Amino acid sequence: DIVMTQSPDSLAVSLGERATISCKSSQSLLYSSNNKNYLAWYQQKPGQPPKLLINWASTRESGVPDRFSGSGSGTDFTLTISSLQAEDVAIYYCQQYYNTPPYTFGQGTKLEIK
Amino acid sequence: QLQLQESGPGLVKPSETLSLTCTVSGGSISSTSYYWGWVRQPPGKGLEWIGTIYYSGSTNYNPSLKSRVTISVDTSKNQFSLELSSVTAADTAVYYCARHSGGASYYRPFDYWGQGTLVTVSS
User: Fold this and answer.
1) Interface touch B46/A105, C-beta < 8 Å
2) Is B43 on the interface with A (CB under 8 A)?
3) Which of A38, A49, A95 sits opposite B115 (nearest CB)?
4) Inter-chain contact A50–B113, Cβ cutoff 8 Å?
5) What sign does the dihedral A79-A89-A12-A106 (CA atoms) show?
6) Are A98 and A40 in contact, with CB atoms under 8 Å apart?
């Protein structure tokens, strides 16, 4: 199985500041035939299902604010929130869909306001 | 707007079989573009993929659960279902049904999710 490791486990950032979450995979998620990274980011607020924010490591889903961005390739990926808003308080998960079974998720990063 | 809704018992006894159904509305489960899956989340913990199905009935299961899991589809009712046998307290979780995003491939993330249903395993 591909192991997904996020860091940090929790993060406190001031409103308006940048938040950065890292996700590392135990093997490359870059598929050479199409040059795509099979990595997604989700946001989960309390009592809600996860919401897909970014797929292919850097493609924002429709309707997702542009303060959210994804970057990275191979085994190292980053989710950045450029200017933290109160509504961004949530747990964020990365997920690989390169190698299945199984799809695997990171353990989650809890983002709070400082 | 596509909607998914899980339904089924909220309490299951140990050693019995957990059965859930996901009803899809606002779209057809028979679309050739999408696969459909189940994901669970124990209280306060992370996400675990259970399995995925195509409208044709083709399935793909998490090896850690494969011996106990059956996912089926009923295209006439626009539903797909999950059965998990021989449950224990470790199977207590919120169970989500979800759709893999388009491309007629299961190498896709989940773009639509149900609200989830808590299933507790307890005598």
Assistant:
1) yes
2) no
3) A49
4) yes
5) negative
6) no
d(C-alpha B29, C-alpha B57), whole Å: 11
- Distance between terminal CA atoms of chain A? 36
Whether residue B101 and residue A95 make contact (CB cut-off 8 A), yes or no, is no
Phi, psi of B121, deg, nearest 5: -100, 115
User: Which residues of chain B are within 8 Å of residue A102 when distances are taken between CB atoms?
Assistant: 49, 62-64
Per-residue pLDDT for chain B (123 aa), expressed as one digit of tens each? Answer: 999 999 999 999 999 999 999 999 999 999 999 999 999 999 999 999 999 999 999 999 999 999 999 999 999 999 999 999 999 999 999 999 999 998 888 899 999 999 999 999 999
Nearest to A12 by CA among A111, A81, A84, A86: A111
Q: What is the pLDDT of residues A18-65, one digit of tens each?
A: 999 999 999 999 999 999 999 999 999 999 999 999 999 999 999 999
